[in-house]
Structure formats: structure tokens, C-alpha cells
Amino acid sequence: MSEPLLSVQDLSVEFPTGDGVLRAVDGVSFDLAAGGALGIVGESGSGKSTTALALLGLHRGTGARVSGRVLLGDDDVGALDDESVRRLRGRRIAMIFQDPLSALDPYFRIGDQIAEVYRNHTGAGRRAAWARAVEVLDRVGIPDAARRARARPHEFSGGMRQRALIAMALACEPEVLVADEPTSALDVTVQAQILDLIDELRADTGMALLLVTHDLGVVSRSVDRVLVMQDGRAVEEGPVGEVLRAPTAPYTRALLDAVPRIDGPVSPRPTHQPPGEPLLTVTGLTREFRRPGGGLRRDVLRAVDDVSLEILGGETLGVVGESGSGKTTLARMIVRLLEPTSGGIVFDGRDLTGLPERALRPVRRDLQMVFQDPVSSLNPRRTVGDSIADPLRVQGTGDREALRTARELMERVGLDPARHDRYPHEFSGGQRQRMGIARALSLRPKLLVCDEPVSALDVSTQAQILDLLRDLQEEYELTIVFVSHDLAVVRQVSDRVAVMRNGALVELADAEELYTSPRHEYTRTLLAAVPVLA
Amino acid sequence: MTRFLLRRFASTVVLLLVMVALVYLIFYTLPSDPAVLVCGKGCGGGQLAVIDHKLGLDQPEWVQFWHFLEGIFVGRDYSSGPDVSHCAAPCLGFSFQNDQPVLSLIGQRLPVSLSLTIGAMVIWLLIGVPAGVLSALRAGRITDRVVTAASVLAFGAPIFVSGMLLLMLFCGYLHWLSFPVYVPFTENPAEWAKNLLLPWFTLAIAQAAIYARLTRTGMLETLSEDHIRTFRAYGLRERRIVGRHALRGAITPVITISAYDFGYILVGAMLTETLFGLPGLGQLIVQSSNNVDLPVVAGLTLVAGAAIVVANTAADLLYAVVDRRVVLS
């Protein structure tokens, strides 16, 4: 390899905290050749984003202590004065971020924001800078760029915003693009388009790419070399094919094993009983929302549009779809957290349609829900034991008895029952999701609806929660509706899979059949967009 | 944008009408018989009936309200004795105690109150907002602590204490200023400003403290947002990031509170007005309340309400300029 463009030597980043010093990055070294592409993968807290920020000297003024060397060409980013570092940023090394909505200023036109960055580094005039903004927006595939440059960020879709941010990065033709989880907030089909765009721009401009991500699939398709990080240290580095095929570090192996595969073997489904009679039948279910700002006109959004399906006793029905497909709305209507606009729900032979809340209450114990965000779905001011015991109390169980059951459930879902008097913030994300599951199980429901239950979790934690759900399904004879945007995860856990798009049910089939021979065009598009591990 | 403006304007008009109705309800129909108040003590039953008739109080209430509205839009006549007084539109009622339409009473004092309010507002914004920005940029450091301590002190000092101290210092000991006397702006702008300096600062000191805190909170919040990080990552100068991108987000709550404060202080600065002997609306409302001159109190309530409503509309329009998303929702 010739002289590297970017060379990181023994980089460490420490954050002083209330109790001691947190060493977020611990002696990491790597090189990035001009035009090369390096991926940094790791789970949350591995120090991968902290490393990325250090490349641009973005820890300056935050109280973090950075040591080691970051060489960009001949410049040592750590040793330069603030003004010189400022001149590097955006001109020689540019960065794009995970959430493209919040990464752009909501108050300004997108074209102005890009032009501002361009003028900042080139001193170009207003008119020239605007022209450059339109040019790069056009380059990243914004249709009708001259007009769309006048839009503000909220007028763009998620994918368009990420394109706009990439356009900002392109404006000064940097040598290195640092992309921190650039597609993690996007739908798979949009993710595929953005990754293709980055590939194309790299080939076109010869800029080097440093891609930070938790997604091994994304790494596998987008970079040449990969660096695996764990707890602030680099545990393995090498060509991406080799590392993913024959990892040497045990951590990399464990990580790869935990990744749910869309193509690989499926872990066996519990076979305690053949899926039997329909437990819940949904017919013509529709839910409309009024769009805000419609004034007197009735401007409605049909979030779920005439969906009919059956959920068989003992099965797991996966529901997949991209954002806005109506999958969460459907899930909430199934447990009657949301009133359908029209259509019927029959649960266990009982028609729930239009049943008033009072009559519904005894049925509620059979219908429970697990939410995506274990942090916000638990009351931060109630102890874990109380949170798990609350549903029992609501249904009339005595206090002592409810707390005893809560402790048993904690033990069952893999939490230490001695910690029942602690508060949610003292637990990790995976542990909190275990609490959510324990709470949902406290009433021994027949149907458990899980809405993106593992989407906020790292892959290794994800695998543990999925294992737990499978065991519990067998033990409690649960029927599960598993809602997720992640096609690979859904494949691992489901007997049958329903695909939703724009509120409508597109396809419903046995999991194996849907993944091997999808019948609907949209299902095929979705499956093709998922990055596959090499 | 045009649709937004029209909608906002229409809702302002509706709000003003509702306010008129409410004020009318409170002041003209609920309390004791207005005829008694007009006539004074020791009025006989016969006299009351005559006054009732003259004031139109013997008519059904909705007719009276109609006349009141009519007065606002086209003017009306009042007669309490042999002579008839015309009250031109917009007529907010007639003060029999002063033998003048309410509006002309208000009109005499409005310039004083406007002078006081606008001047003080300019000063508290000029002090409060920069102090808040500085405090946020130096969060946790000595500058921040000094600003915070000063804010607590300034906010904690009642008007009659801070105003007294200013008076004693500048007029008593230093003799830099003479005791304030109101001079109309149209007569002598320099004297107008010189005489209002102390009242302005008295009002502004406490307000500036609130605005500094408000701006500091807003700034800290925006500075921690992702798009600020983006511009840092693209090498924009810190001065530009703060001045152009962070301040824009932090200023929105300041606009809201300013609108409310404007309306409130216009009519509610009785302490400052009394302390400095300024013949403003605040003094008028105190006098009229003491004399139970209900038409004047009602008129002032209408003016204060209208000021708040109009200022709020202005604030909304400002928002729409600052943040275009407002127009859409």
C-alpha cells in the first residue's frame, strides 16, 4: 500500500465523568488509503462514533481528552491549532450523520445551508455558491434540484435529506468522507439507494470512505477493509471478505453468529402444537387519521386500509413493512390501544368490534403488547417490580401477591429478582426490554403483540431477546404477532409473514415460502434491498 | 403564505369580538346597577328610573350589547342630563364621572404608556438577550455565574425598591438627572428620552433578568442539537454558528414572551408610573377602580386585551418569518 491518506495511530479518547474517567477509545490504530474504503463496526458503546468524531477534531472544547495521532496527509489533526482544524473540516474531510433530519438546520433552505458551507471554505460569491449547491444536489440525485434547493429540511423525505447531507459533504470535494451510521434511520430500499450513491460518488471522485456502522451487512457491501471494535479497542482488522468469512477474533465470531440471516439457516421453530384454530380474526380493518392543517376540508390519511387476516393459535405471525406502511397502527388496533375507523376484530370467538372499554377490560388481560423503546415505555419513577406488578394490581390482585409474581417473572426473563426495587435507568437496554416482556406476561396473556421489540438493541442482545421470546412462547403457549422493519429478524422468528405497504396487506404466506419464492413484486424489491453478508 | 396570513387575521378578529363580549358581560351586566353609580348616593326610585331610561338600561340586555357594539363601530350618543354627548367610533363607553368618552381618557394617556413600554422593552431585550447568549456560551464558568447571580438579584428586587434606589442614586446623590417629568415626544424628543431613562431602566432591569434566563435555556438547548454539530463538522466559524444558527432557535420563546409582556406592561405598569409620576394607563386603571368608574375600567381592559391579542398576532407572523414550518401546520 502506498502512503496512507489518513493514518490513525494509537488513538485514545477519555471522557471525565462523575465517577472516574471513561476510556471510550483505547489505543486504536488504522490507515485509510486514498480512494480506499474502511468500515468500523461495533455495538453501541464500542467507541466507533467517538473515533469518527476524533478524525475531524470534533472533541475539541468538549472536555474529552484525546491522545495519539490522527494524520491527514501531512497534517496532524491533534496538533493543529483550532483555526487550521476548522479549515480542514468540510474541505478535506467531511462527515455525514445518522439522523439527516436533525443534522440539518430546520430554519434554513437546504440550498442556503450547502452554499454557506461552500462559501465558508472557498470565499465564493453568493450566486456562485448557490449554483454550486444546486449542482451538488443534482449530483446526488435530487430531482429538479434548482427548485428543490429552496425547500427546507422538513419538506424532504428521510432519504432525500440524507442525499442533501451528502451533497453538503460533496460541495468542497473532500478527500475523505466519514459516514457515521448514514443509513441506520432509513428504510431498506432507501438504504440500498444511498449506499449505491456513495459507491458511485467514490468511484467518480476518488474520495476515501470511512463508514461507521453497527450493520455487518452494510459493511459487507460497501467497504474493502473492516475494523471491528469492542469496548474502545480494535479487536480485528482486515479485508472485509476475510474478516466476515473467517474471523480470527472470538468477538467477531460471536457478533457474526448473532446476526440474523436473511439467507442462512433458520433456528428451529417450537413445535409444541400445530398452529390451530384462528385465535384472532381481523376483517376489513381500516384506520384513518386526519392530517393536520387541513382546515375545514377533510384531509385524511388512511394508515391501515382494509386489512383482513387471521392469527392462528400458537403461531408467530411476522408483520414487515417500511416506515409509514401501517404496521404499528395495525398492531395497536389488534390490542385495541387504537380504535379502528371501520372493520371488525374477533378474538377467541368474541367480537370486539365497538365493545366499550368497560366490557373490554376482562379481555385486555389476554391481549398484551411489548413496545420498541424499553426506555420510554417504562415509568422512570416506578421501581421495576412495581412496573411489572402494575397490570396485576389493575386486574385486582393483592399487593403482596402481585409483587411476588413480579419477582418470579423477573427471574423467568433472566433478571435478578433481588433488583426488583431498582429503577429502569439502572438497567441496560436489553434488560429493560426483558422488563417490558415480563410486564406483558404478568397477566398470562394468550396473544402477545411485539412492536419492533429488538430494533433498539445490539445484535448480540437482540439474539438473546429473540431466544427468550421463543422459550416463553413454548412455556406460556403464546400466540405472537411480531412487527418489525427488519426482514432478517422476522424470518428467524415467524411461522407466517405478512408484508404491508401504504396501509395495505401486500402478501401473506408461510415464512419459508415468502422468503424463497416471494409472489408479490414489492416483497421481491424489499428482499433484494437487504444487504447480505458475504 | 397568503392563506396563513388570512387565517391568522380572521382568528384575530374573532378573538377580539369574543373578548368584547366577555368584557361587556363582566362589566355591564354582572355588577350592581350602573344607574346607581351614575346617580350617586341618595338617589330616589324615580330618578333611577329616569336615568335607567336615558342610559337605555331598561332595554333588554342583548339590545344594550348591540348598542355597545354599535358604539365601537359607528359611534353613539350618551345623555345623562339635559345635554347629549356624542361618543365617536370607536366608542368604548362613556365615563360620566369625567364627562368624557372613555377613549379620549385613554387617548390622553396612551402616548405615555407606549413611550414607557416600548423604550423599556428595547432596553430589556438589548440587555437580556446578549446576557443570556453570553451566559450559555460560558455555561458553568465564571461569566455564567455572574450573569446568573445578577439575574436573581435583579429579578428579586421589587420595582419600588429598584426604582427608588435608581432615583436616589441618579437624582439624589449624583444629580445627573432631575426628577422625571413626562415630556411628550412630539414636543422635545431629547427631553422625552432623558426624563424616561429612569422609568425605562426600572422596568427593564427585572425584565432583562427573565429574558437572560430564557435566552440562556434556549441557547443551551439549540447548541446541543445535531445541526449545530453538523456546521461545526463543516468548519463554520463559531461566531457564525452561534449568531446565525443557534440564536434563531433560541429566540422563539423570547418572541412569545415579548408579545405577552408588551400588552401586560402597557396597562399594568402602575408601580413604575406611580413612582415616577407618569400619567399613564396604569395610573388611570388604579384611579378608575378606586372611583368605581366601570366604563373606564372596562375600556382599559379592552385596550389591554386588544394589545395582547394584536401583539400575539404580530409574534405569530414573526415566527412564520423565522420558522417556515409554522405556516404549514
TrEMBL record, chain A:
PANTHER family: D,D-DIPEPTIDE TRANSPORT ATP-BINDING PROTEIN DDPF-RELATED, TRANSPORT ATP-BINDING PROTEIN. Residues 6-256, 280-527 form the ABC transporter domain. The keyword Nucleotide-binding applies. GO terms for molecular function: ATP binding; ATP hydrolysis activity. Keywords: ATP-binding, Nucleotide-binding, Transport. This is ABC transporter ATP-binding protein. It comes from the Bacteria. GO terms for biological process: peptide transport; transmembrane transport. It comes from Actinoallomurus iriomotensis. Belongs to the ABC transporter superfamily.
Automatic annotation (TrEMBL), chain B:
This is ABC transporter permease. Coiled coil: none annotated. The chain crosses the membrane at residues 12-30, 112-134, 146-176, 196-214, 246-271, 296-322. It comes from Actinoallomurus iriomotensis. GO terms for cellular component: plasma membrane. Belongs to the binding-protein-dependent transport system permease family. GO terms for biological process: transmembrane transport. Gene3D superfamilies: MetI-like. Keywords: Cell membrane, Membrane, Transmembrane, Transmembrane helix, Transport. Residues 110-319 form the ABC transmembrane type-1 domain. It is found in: Cell membrane. InterPro entries: BPD_transp_1_N, MetI-like, MetI-like_sf. The keyword Transcription regulation does not apply. It is a multi-pass membrane protein.
